[in-house]
Structures are given as structure tokens and as C-alpha cells.
Amino acid sequence: MSAEFTPLPGQTAIPGCEPTVGADNTAEVNAVLAEVALSARAPFDAYPTPQAFADGVARRVREILPYPPAMIVEPSAGTGAFVRAIKPLWPDVPIIAVEVQPGLDTALYEAGATSVSIANWIDVAEAVQRTALPTPWLIIGNPPYLEAVEHIDAALRIMQHGEWLAFLLRINFFGSNGRRGFWAKKKDRLKYLIPFTQRPKFRNNKSDATEYGVFIWEKGYTGNAEVLPNMDIAEELVREKE
Description:
Elements: H1 26-39, H2 51-64, E1 71-74, H3 81-86, E2 95-99, H4 105-111, E3 115-118, H5 121-127, E4 137-141, H6 148-158, E5 164-170, H7 180-184, E6 190-195, E7 212-218, E8 226-227, H8 234-241
Parallel strand pairs: 1-2, 1-4, 2-3, 4-5, 6-8
Antiparallel strand pairs: 5-7, 6-7
Helix pairs in contact: 2-8, 5-6
């Protein structure tokens, strides 16, 4: 039962909107906030990765990747942050950049991509023929969050045994009833999680008070995920400001 609200001196209750004390409106508030967040998302769900974070992810993956990739694929390449991060680390490896937003092909070639496809990654993954392409692959990037499961599944379907997929994602990607089936699968499981020490600033140079990390899947892996030490990108952040 909710108590009756009595305005303090100088306060006036809005007619028809008199607040109540003791009512639990948490679910309603969360639902409204979720709707607002979705409606306010950027076109194409595109949030360019800050260069320092792309550099840090590429560097860390390079340190622990157990094989030399013959081709690197960025499935949601945006304006090329990951392409720029990848190029100096694997200068002789072809980089395939896929990006759904039209008009970014020139920027991606300038960033260092060997080939650019302006298309949806899910469609590209369905059409690609691996037999004509060098192996093994490394797939790396920052997928659109609302389509992250679809992007991961599309990648895993075309990956070959032992190949890695490394995506920058929110740590709360582990949650949600909608992803219960995704996390319950018994093969092609997550192998590593590397949390970030710093928080990326995706929009208006502000963080969203959310923790992020690098999620690494290995094709054919059936074990449990291991949390690796936090990734500190302080050096990359300093270089980004120079």
C-alpha cells in the first residue's frame, strides 16, 4: 500500500500526477529508460571505437594469439580504428574490412584495408567461400551491440577449427534472458575475457559508466572461459592525445 503524498511548503503537486510514497515502480522506470536508450541510439547502431582502445585490443590479441593469421577480417569496420590498429602489427597480412554504412570505403582503404565490402556482415558471412581465401583467419572488431549475437554467430559459422574471434563488448553482454540460449551452447564457446581498466568514451567524449572488455571465442572450444588480467591502455591514451 502506498502512502498519500503531502507537498512540502512551496511545492505543488501536478494535477493527475500526484506522486506516492512507498510504491515500487522500478520495473516501469527501467522499461521507460530502456525505450529511451534504444530510441536515442546512433544510426546503424554505430559508435566508432576510440583509437586508443582499438590499439589496445589489437596489441593484446597479438600478444596471446596462438597462430600467425593469414587474413584478418573486421566485420563492422566503421571509419577504420581497428584497421589502423591492425596494420602496423601485421603489416603483410591482408585486412578485409566490412562496413554497412555507405560512403566509408575510401576512409577504410586509407586506414590500410586491403579490400572493403560495403555490406552487412551477416550477409557477407553467408555468401563467402572460404576455399578461395587464405587460412587461418583472425576476426576482430567492435560489433553493433544490438546485433552482436548475430554478428558472433555469423562469424563462428564460417570460422575454421582453432581460429579466433575477438570482439570489444560491454561486460553486461553476459546478461539478458534473450542471450540465454547463446551462452548455453556447448561448442565454439568463449575462451577468454579481458576486462578494460579504463572505460571507453564512445559518444560526445563521455563514458557511459559501463565496463567493457575483449571477448575471445575459439572455433571448436568446449571448455570454460578464463578471465585474463585487466587490459590497461594508459600508454595508448597518452599517444592518442599527442
